[in-house]
Predict the 3D structure of the following.
Amino acid sequence: MPSILLAVDGSENAMRAVKDFIAKRDWYQQPVELHLLNVQLPIASGLVKSFISKRQLDSYYRDEGLAALAQARSILDDAGVTYRHHIGVGELAKTILDYAHDKASGIIVIGTHGRGAVTGALLGSVATRVLHQSDIPVLLVS
């Protein structure tokens, strides 16, 4: 079964990417395995790690990731789309690409701009890095 990685950050463009996937799912001639991914930037380094336990950090990443995935999951659930959700931690583009390879994804779907969008920019920095570093086809949705 073909695998698709849909990276979301909770932004409007990410929700458009989710809706675009739903609208175009009939394009696929067979069922696909959809992987919904949110990536959290690591927040702890150096001395911070001596004051915050790994369990507290993991809980924080999980809570923030689930919050960022909530609207996308709701849209997919309402449309009856089966998916698996994942929360990664790390540098955004690299983690997206690592998940895409790990899940043997045939395509990465991502919004052109995320939460850190710069007004007037053609592509956001994460979308640009994913597009330029990926050996897997990337579908950009704006």
